[in-house]
Specification:
This protein has two helices and seven strands. With about 110 residues, the chain is of the alpha+beta class. The strands form two sheets. A four-stranded antiparallel β-sheet has the order 4-3-6-7, with helices on one face. Strands 1-2-5 form a three-stranded antiparallel β-sheet, with no helix packed on it. Strand 1 and strand 2 form a beta hairpin.
Length: about 110
């Protein structure tokens, strides 16, 4: 798990201010049982990659090149995952900071 956190710190320091301010994500519900909602708040549509990692750093889910519209709620089905703590990484297609969330799967 330590490895993931270090990557997160590296990602957080490489911030392109203009883009980082252009989008925010609200992730709910957390803890989650089935469907995780990601509400994107931004001015214009953009491409994102969504990745879920387990505590050992293994990539479990990867959704590449999702075109997200302003105000869109993207959904990730986590039904098949074992109850545990996971790391959600949201990577913008354009230059910009990744966002990381700890997801508690019930």
């Amino acid at each position: 798990g330590e490895n993931i956190l270090k990557q997160g710190v590296v990602g957080a320091t490489a911030i392109s201010e203009s883009f980082a301010e252009d989008w925010t994500v609200t992730v709910y519900p957390n803890p989650v049982k089935t469907m995780l909602n990601l509400h994107f708040d931004m001015e214009s549509s953009g491409e994102f990659t969504l990745e879920i990692y387990d505590v050992s750093g293994r990539n479990i889910i990867s959704e590449d090149g999702l075109m997200i519209l302003p105000g869109q709620v993207a959904k990730l089905d986590l039904t098949g995952l074992t109850p545990a703590l996971y790391l959600l990484k949201i990577i913008p297609g354009a230059q910009g900071a990744q966002q990381m969330f700890k997801i508690n799967k019930q």
